[in-house]
Design a protein that fits this description.
The complex is a heterodimer of chains A (816) and B (346).
Chain A (H helix, E strand, L loop, with lengths): L1 E3 H4 L10 H10 L4 E6 L7 E11 L7 E6 L6 E5 L9 E6 L3 E2 L2 E2 L3 E3 L2 E3 L1 E3 L14 H4 L15 H4 L5 E5 L11 H12 L22 E4 L4 E10 L8 H10 L6 H13 L3 E5 L7 E6 L5 E3 L5 E3 L5 E4 L4 E4 L3 E2 L11 E9 L1 H10 L5 H8 L6 H15 L3 E2 L3 E4 L4 H4 L1 E5 L1 H8 L5 H11 L2 E4 L8 E5 L9 H12 L20 H15 L3 E2 L5 E2 L1 H6 L24 E2 L4 H12 L6 E11 L10 E11 L1 E3 L8 E2 L2 H14 L8 E4 L5 E11 L2 E9 L1 H6 L5 E7 H7 L15 E10 L4 H12 L3 E11 L7 E10 L8 H19 L2 E2 L3
Parallel strand pairs in A: 13-16, 28-31
Antiparallel strand pairs in A: 1-12, 2-12, 3-4, 3-6, 4-5, 6-11, 7-8, 9-10, 14-22, 14-23, 14-24, 15-22, 16-19, 17-18, 19-20, 20-21, 25-27, 26-27, 29-30, 31-32, 32-38, 33-34, 35-36, 36-37, 37-38, 39-41, 39-42, 40-41
Helix pairs in contact in A: 5-13, 6-7, 7-10, 8-9, 12-14, 13-14, 21-22
Chain B lengths: L1 H17 L3 H12 L4 H7 L9 H38 L17 H15 L3 E2 L5 E3 H4 L24 E3 L5 H9 L6 E10 L11 E11 L4 H16 L5 E8 L2 E10 L16 E10 L1 H6 L8 E8 H9 L6 H4 L2 H4 L8
Parallel strand pairs in B: 1-4
Antiparallel strand pairs in B: 2-3, 4-5, 5-9, 6-7, 7-8, 8-9
Helix pairs in contact in B: 1-4, 2-4, 5-10
The chains are: A alpha+beta (816), B alpha+beta (346).
């Protein structure tokens, strides 16, 4: 919302104030002034001139030599290139020595003829040409006839003014008008607001230009209209046009400009109809019929539905209530009689219609925030008075329908307690001070009268519909008293225990572990695309392709919620690999989304995943030794260590080969615990890695929620062993199809309770092991709590282990 | 006899002085001090001496033996030290060569800010809550006093999945969820760090996905001054012990009164610079007293309890702290950018 300083000064006394100070005070009171700027350049030496004569240039077809009266002793001779210059026009003239935004103007010769100045265009004197009609921006600017010859142009155009742009919060729809801002300034400085009072008696005879209004819908609470006959369409006065330009409204002609001007002044959107387009002068406000059509002012034909409120006559739709007028009833140069509408339309429905039709007009934006019902009539009277003054109209009597209350009928009473307000703010507030601040806001206050209470009744006028409860009054008080008055205290009263949950601690320790392993934490976007999933070999039909889609994405690249972090981590690796950082070790702890069904109807499952990607060298090597590339066992070991962080024993885990399409066959595994999938890891299929400019990459993902559910949160330490352990190494030959896990579990199962630990220390194939077989070296650790084991005991256990391994997986002791 | 002994001592010590290395030293010991060595040889002649001469000659003999043994010990010590030094010389390394490194990764800067926020607020008695990123319209808007079709909804351009499901536009829905889940009027102090979404085109200052940290305190007699004090404590912990804060009126549908919180510009300290647009202050969060409608709609009684809430942009904090100029840097994950955060404690 833009306003100008001089315009504001018409409604509130600004004497002794500067725009800068007022802007700062408004900002501190919650009406932030985002930006301020002088309305136009000061234009020294640029005055209004009258073109006396225009003659051809002796030496140039396109140039003309004009004599221009600028109020000096003798007229100036000026060479002008504009095609539209003509005798009798009033024009802005930059005299010798004048300063324009584009530079200084001096007397000079143009093709041999001396030019004593320059006739200026709109752009040359700093007008915003985007909002001006074409006839005012091509060629020189022709001024209205009321301009006085010799008057400085900056003064004539009101350039000595300041534009302020307010950044309004949605609750302050009242400040979408000069009136609202004036009340705000009045409250800040304890001054009075004076709005123009234009009550006039009708000049048309009764029965002349009959007008009637009928409201046939609940979505229009009140409707006022008035005929103004005999209007002469033409440009609005220059000061009005300049103010509209300053606040960003395109001047289009006196009638529409006046409705816009009054909308800015009072906050009440108005509309002007051509009276002759209204059948029998009978206005009906009603809901649209299914598929009813109306041609709107922007030249489009809109197909409507019954939720939309219409302004119509007995035969046809005339416009969309509160949103946009209709083309067929539009005011044109041929209009002689107008009807001005000032009405109350339902905020919600106006907003819905505006959104559905993508018509967020100035009117719609005001209606959706709520317009003060008490201004409907004064705004209409003001517009009619201006039409009489500036468009030569003669007004009939206003016609009213529905509820059109006066200001004294619309105030709302809010009961407040100064003590309660002080309790909310944290400092003492007296009834006297509260009453004073309310007075500055124009809120009348009286004592509640209830015995023993300190309560006050605050009468809030309808221009401030946002103030409806004690908390609202508290805010009004606090912001006018200054938020700086609020002291800084710490909470008293009930204790709360702060701290992190076990789950949050687990997140921290996992991060800590991966960071100290040299993995870099990354954050990637959760919105991705089917194309990206496809690129990571998650093809149509794969469960991870069941991604929840946005209904209104901004782009195809960010249209679905990710089901896996693989593509985004590959993307990060690709980005860095292409920037000479080919050694990648990254991880992310974030959300993935599993819709329960597609299309999405309910909240998808949100799982927290800990995913990582390793690519390039595990050890960069250097002067101490050779480099080593990552391999499968780096990623599997990392996953095992991650489980360790949560106290999940590797022995509890079932490992099985994984056949996900994005993994290299034979280089991927899945960990489950009691049927619960906890981790997935392996080498990214080389064809996929290559699509991301990677040679080899290893991916892991750990289901954080699953890990959290299994994580150990208590520890009772075990007594340290008091008796020594004994070790035995066995080399067992098994068929290639037998996995290490199968061999280990056979040994564990058979060896009995004395076996404290068993681990693989060597794997060897070829040579004496024979084709299709390999040797697995196991180190068995035997220990008892209560004694040192004898050789016989250990040998018995080893024999049992061997027998079990032979029985379960066909293992044989390797020949020495 | 005494002369023989004296002569022996002279010769032996002279020879000892000429020796070089451990091997000849052992030969020397055998030659002079061994069981069949020269000293033993001389002493064997002791028996032939008259009894009254024996004590005097014995004393000389002992002195010679002590001298030879001392000389031997000293020389052996020297030899051993020389051998040690030779070994040390051989094993010495260029200590300026680079070590065998295993450098740690860096916490993501946004995660780092979140961790610091958690630590600060946990210290103030808060717990850390979270909630779903795909949210119901009810929790994201309606239960926070944004009625359907309210213009305040335009403050936050929203990604929808369906008419009723959306990507949360702020972490505030966790306020409603936590209130609703808690026993009516029971005291609460939570912060909620998390990812949020706005339907904005990505540029240097906008991101369709970013991170917020919400705070909510509810209890009996909670005042706006407590809000200011709590956030002052936060600002000092985050930005330095001499920080100051300033509240400015603002509007959020779920708080009343509402405010923006400014801190003294962390770059110029308040003197005025480009970061604070010469004002000396920078806005870091929005806050306010929980709107009674929010308490009421979520099962709390505004006549019994009051509360405050605040919400801050984690990216904004990180951008100010680390002078990051483009919000997209946090999501591009250029390792040259991220690695820098391994080298800072705060």
């Amino acid at each position: 919302m833009k306003i100008t300083w001089n315009w504001l000064a018409e409604y509130v006394d600004l004497s002794g104030l500067t725009p800068e100070q007022t802007a700062s005070d408004l900002t501190n009171a919650g009406i932030p002034v985002e930006w301020m700027e002088r309305l136009g350049p000061s234009l020294p030496g640029v005055v209004v001139g009258r073109v006396l004569s225009v003659a051809a240039h002796p030496d140039a077809d396109r140039l003309r030599v004009c004599t221009v009266d600028v109020g000096a002793a003798s007229p100036l001779a000026i060479v002008c290139g504009a095609a539209n210059v003509a005798a009798g026009q009033k024009v802005p003239v930059a005299c010798d020595g004048a300063v324009l935004p584009g530079g200084a103007i001096t007397r000079s010769k143009l093709r041999g003829v001396v030019s004593e100045g320059m006739v200026c265009s709109a752009a040359e004197i700093g007008l915003n040409t985007k909002l001006l009609p074409k006839e005012q921006t091509s060629g020189i600017l022709v001024l209205q006839d009321d301009a006085r010859v010799g008057e400085p142009v900056a003064a004539y155009l009101g350039f000595d003014d300041v534009v302020l742009e307010l950044e309004l919060t949605p609750n302050r729809g009242d400040c979408l008008s000069l009136r609202g801002v004036a009340y705000e300034v009045a409250a800040l400085y304890g001054r009075a607001v004076r709005m123009p009072d234009d009550a006039q008696s009708p000049r048309l005879r009764a029965g002349e230009f009959p007008l009637s209004v009928r409201i046939d819908t609940d979505l229009c609470q009140g409707y006022a209209a008035q005929v103004v006959a005999g209007v002469v369409p033409g440009p609005a006065p220059i000061w009005m046009q300049m103010r509209l330009l300053a606040v960003g409204v395109r001047p289009t002609g006196n009638i529409v400009d006046i409705t816009n001007y009054v909308m800015y002044e009072w906050g009440q959107p108005l509309h002007a109809f051509d009276y002759d387009a209204i059948a029998d002068g009978g206005i009906v406000v009603r809901q649209a019929r299914d598929d009813e059509e109306v041609a709107t002012l922007d030249g489009q034909t809109r197909r409507l539905w019954p939720d939309v409120t219409l302004i119509a006559d007995g035969r046809k739709a005339l416009g969309l209530a509160g949103v946009m007028g209709g083309r067929d009833s539009e005011v044109t140069g041929a209009t002689r009689t107008v009807v001005i509408e000032s009405a109350r339309f339902d905020p919600l429905q106006t907003r819905k219609t505006g959104k559905a039709l993508q018509l967020r007009s100035e009117a719609e934006q005001r209606f959706e925030r709520g317009v003060d019902p008490a201004v409907v009539k004064p705004a209409l009277a003001r517009a009619v008075a201006l039409l009489e003054r500036h468009a030569a109209g003669r007004a009939g009597a206003p016609v009213f329908a529905g509820a059109l209350p006066d200001a004294d009928e619309t105030a709302v009473e809010v009961v407040v307690s100064p003590a309660a307000i002080g309790g909310l703010l944290g400092y003492e507030v007296t009834a006297q001070e509260l009453t004073m601040v309310c007075g500055r806001l124009g809120f009348a206050v009286r004592a509640d009268g209830a015995p023993g209470g300190d309560r006050l009744r605050v009468s809030v006028p309808s221009r401030r519909a946002d103030v409806a409860a004690q908390e609202d009054v508290a805010e009004e008080f606090a912001r006018l008293a200054g938020y700086d008055r609020i002291p800084a205290t710490l909470m008293e009263g009930e204790l709360t225990a702060g701290g992190l949950t076990p789950r949050q601690h687990l997140q921290r320790s996992l991060r800590h572990f991966l960071l100290s392993r040299g993995l870099q934490e990354v954050w990637t976007y959760t919105l991705t695309s089917h194309a990206q999933l496809e690129k990571a070999a998650i093809v149509e039909g794969h469960p991870l392709r069941q991604a929840a889609a946005l209904d209104n994405p901004l782009s195809e690249e960010r249209a679905v919620l990710r089901t896996t972090m693989l593509p985004s981590l590959l993307e990060v690796a690709q980005y860095n690999a292409n920037r000479r950082a080919p050694d990648i070790r990254i991880f992310e702890l974030g959300a993935v989304f599993y819709p329960l069904r597609l299309p999405v109807e309910e909240q998808p499952g949100e799982a927290r995943m800990l995913a990582g990607l390793l690519s390039g060298r595990a050890d960069a090597g250097g002067w101490q030794g050779a480099a080593r590339a990552f391999d499968f066992f780096d990623v599997s070991g990392m996953v095992e260590d991650i489980l360790d962080c949560a106290g999940v024993s590797r022995r509890a885990v079932e490992a099985a080969p994984d056949t996900s399409p994005y993994f290299q066959p034979g280089q991927a595994a899945m960990f489950t615990i009691g049927g619960l999938q906890i981790a997935l890891f392996g080498q990214v299929r080389t064809t996929v890695a290559e699509r991301f400019d990677l040679h080899r990459a290893y991916y892991f993902e750990v289901d954080f929620d699953a890990l959290d559910s299994l994580a150990r949160t208590r520890l009772h330490v075990q007594r340290l062993p008091r008796h020594p352990a004994s070790e035995r190494d066995l080399a067992l030959v098994v068929a290639d199809a037998v996995t290490a896990q199968q061999l280990l579990s056979a040994v564990r199962k058979a060896a009995g309770p004395l076996l404290a630990d068993v681990r693989v220390f060597d794997v060897f194939s070829g040579g004496a092991t024979g084709d299709g077989r390999r040797s697995i070296g196991l180190r068995l650790v035997f220990q008892a709590d209560d004694r040192t084991l004898t050789d016989d005991e250990i040998n018995g256990s080893v024999a049992a282990a061997l027998a079990g391994a032979a029985r379960d997986v066909g293992a044989e002791l390797r020949a020495q | 006899m005494e002369e023989r002994l004296q002569d022996l001592q002279r010769r032996a010590l002279a020879e000892l002085a000429r020796l070089d290395g451990a091997g000849p030293l052992e030969d020397w010991r055998i030659t002079f001090l061994g069981k069949k060595g020269e000293l033993a040889e001389v002493l064997r002649g002791m028996g032939a001496l008259p009894a009254d001469r024996r004590p005097a000659v014995g004393m000389v003999a002992n002195r010679v033996r002590d001298a030879l043994e001392a000389g031997y010990a000293a020389q052996r010590e020297l030899a051993a030290r020389a051998a040690d030094e030779a070994r040390e010389r051989a094993e010495a390394v260029d200590v300026t060569l680079p070590g065998r490194r295993n450098p740690p990764g860096a916490e993501h800067p946004l995660q780092r800010v979140i961790r610091r926020l958690e630590d600060i607020f946990v210290g103030l008695g808060f717990t850390v809550a979270d909630g779903p990123e795909v949210e119901l319209d009810h929790y994201n808007f309606t239960a926070l006093n944004f009625p359907p079709e309210h213009p305040a909804r335009d403050m936050q351009d929203t990604f929808f999945l369906t008419g009723d499901l959306l990507l949360r536009t702020h972490t505030s829905p966790v306020q409603a969820r936590t209130l609703e889940r808690s026993a009516p009027n029971s005291p609460l102090r939570i912060i909620v760090p998390g990812r949020v979404y706005r339907r904005d085109d990505d540029d240097a200052t906008h991101s369709h996905a970013f991170t917020q940290c919400e705070g909510l305190v509810v209890g009996r007699g909670v005042r706006m001054s407590d809000l200011k004090g709590t956030l002052l404590a936060f600002a000092r912990a985050m930005y330095g012990g001499d920080q100051q804060v300033r509240l400015r009126p603002s509007f959020f549908p779920f708080t009343e009164p509402s405010a923006e919180l400014d801190v003294r510009c962390i770059h110029c300290g308040g003197a005025g610079c480009a970061t604070c647009k010469q004002t000396g202050w920078i806005e870091i969060l929005g806050c306010g007293m929980v709107h009674p409608n929010v308490l009421r709609m979520n099962g709390y009684d505004p006549a019994q309890v009051s509360g405050f809430a605040f919400g801050m942009g984690v990216e904004r904090i990180a951008m100010l702290l680390y002078r990051v100029e483009d919000i997209r840097d946090f999501y591009v994950n250029d390792l040259r950018f991220l690695r820098q955060f391994a080298g800072v404690v705060l």
